[in-house]
Amino acid sequence: MKANFLYSAEIKGKTAKFNVNLSIIEFKDKETKTTVVYAPALKVYGYGNTVKEARESFNISLLEFFRYTSNKGTFIKEMKKLGWDIKKRKYELKLKIPEFTRLLQQDDNLSNIFNQNKKITKYEKKIPLSISV
After folding, report:
1. N or C: where does the chain have the smaller number of CB atoms within 10 Å of the terminal CB?
2. How far is 39 from 124, CA to CA, in rounded Å?
């Protein structure tokens, strides 16, 4: 399970536009009996009684994460805190997502999800980004 992609975006003015593939995990929480959608590389969650509700919740959370960090000018700082390798030049931004195996080692919540033998669905989701840098 390796999610080690390198993306670069051209920066025009103070905005960078690009797509990034994120590993997404879906599972049913046994205690709350809710469906959880989780992007470990961003530590963003969504919850719901159904898969559809959980995905909608996740999409809202993801949008808010990018909107907030972009508006506050903290996107690059937050991504670095999350373990992303980021290189910013005048006209280019390069992002390297942490490897999934590294996330498993460093994220206790993610490790617990896998260690508790939950029925897990993992897939990649292409996320279009337009952020202020």
Report:
1. N
2. 10
Per-residue burial over 55-73, b if 16 or more Cβ lie within 10 Å, else e, is bebbeebbeebbeebbeee
The CATH architecture to which 6-132 belongs is: 2-Layer Sandwich (3.30)
Q: Is the dihedral of CA 121, 2, 22, 106 positive or negative?
A: positive
Give residue limits of the domains in the chain.
Answer: 6-132
Q: What is the pLDDT along the chain (133 residues), one digit of tens a residue?
A: 333 334 555 556 667 677 778 889 999 988 889 999 999 999 999 999 999 999 999 999 998 998 898 888 888 899 999 999 888 777 777 788 888 888 888 888 888 888 876 688 888 888 877 776 6
Structure tokens at 8: 């670069």
- Assign 22 to helix, strand or coil: strand
